[in-house]
Amino acid sequence: MTPLTLTQGLARNARLAGLLYLVIIVTGLGAELGLRGPLIDLGDADATAAAILASPGQFRLAIAADLVMALSDAGLAILLYLIFRAMAPGLALAAMVFRLIQTVLIAASLMALLTAWLVLNRAEGLNDTPTLALVFLDLHAHGYDLGLVFFGVNSLIMGLMVGRSGLFAKAFGAGLLVAGLVYLTGSGLRLFAPDWSAVFAPAYGLTILAETAFCLRLLSQRGPRTPASGRSGRG
């Protein structure tokens, strides 16, 4: 890998990437923890249906926030490729592809949320409508975790490139590597050993810490200083 050379263009792309990263963090956590999470209890279909029907604006806002997150994620994938392609074009391309796959899966899983909403509002004649809606809500959660498998691979690649870029402290790369391992482990447990998923959930705090730190570092990136010009000769 060839270390990156800081330029004004690279610094500008880094700051824009940091801005998109911040949007992703705010909308992603906001949708999952602040908006959708309080409405959904996968162990109680009736309570979940009642909560969603009582707060339709909140549920729809969560979908909108996830959509903004997905759009920002696609833009971030492209920007990070532009930043790191001069260093390791193959790895930069691989990281972009894995992140875009994650974005597509998460965006596609929003259809499950919309289906749950339609079931609750337009399928009153079906038997056990709340349970059917809950199945689609659970499908969305599994689709999200499937996307995080690909994002975990992206995080491992990004951790390697960030750590060897010469522009960022190696701690940022190490943090992304840890985040990648957490995503892969957490998604694997959710998909294949769900009984252990809740026990592992606190580890996601490491991913929030690592990604927020890298986001702030991107936002603070500045281009090379312009050499001081000579004296004008006016005394």
What would you say this structure looks like, in words?
Keywords: Membrane, Transmembrane, Transmembrane helix. InterPro entries: DUF4386 (IPR025495). There is one protein chain. The chain has one domain. Helix content is 77%, strand content 0%. It has eight helices and no strands. Helix 1 runs antiparallel to helix 3 and helix 4 runs antiparallel to helix 5. The protein is elongated, with a radius of gyration of 21 Å. The C terminus is likely disordered.
Sum this structure up briefly:
This is DUF4386 domain-containing protein. This protein is mostly helical and 235 residues long.
List the defining traits of the structure above.
single chain, 235 residues, mainly alpha, 8 helices, 77% helix, elongated, disordered C terminus
